[in-house]
Amino acid sequence: MSETVINTQELGEKIVQVLKTIYDPEIPVDIYELGLIYDVFVNEERDVKILMTLTSPNCPVAETLPVEVEEKVKSLDAVKDAMVEITFDPPWTQELMSEEAKLELGML
């Protein structure tokens, strides 16, 4: 009996789709387009680690947003476990936003 090979790239893309459903409550743009997600790691065991930041260390959702990200990613059937790590290095700036986010916010 052979084990099913997990396509980590495919799973990564599914995770990004989930991340695009999570919004910063103060800005009407999803956290992925805002540039708050620095990296998504997926290993062969289907454990996911997400390295993300917040718009500021005093962000009102500093307690709840990482939990929401973790829970939504864990809800994917293919994900065994998910962990979110918050970093402020490098600090978030508006340059990290996608063109789509800048357009949405009238910055282009």
From TrEMBL:
Known InterPro entries for this protein?
Fe-S_Maturation_MIP18 (IPR052339), FSCA_dom_sf (IPR034904), MIP18-like (IPR002744), SUF_FeS_clus_asmbl-assoc (IPR014291)
The cross-references to Gene3D superfamilies, in alphabetical order and at most eight, read: Fe-S cluster assembly (FSCA)
Signal sequence, renumbered to the chain: none
Which is an annotated Pfam family here? FeS_assembly_P
Outline the extent of the MIP18 family-like domain.
13-85
The record's listing under PANTHER family reads: FE-S PROTEIN MATURATION AUXILIARY FACTOR YITW (PTHR42831)
Q: What is this protein called?
A: SUF system Fe-S cluster assembly protein
The record lists the organism as Maribacter arenosus
Taxonomic lineage of this organism? Answer: Bacteria, Pseudomonadati, Bacteroidota, Flavobacteriia, Flavobacteriales
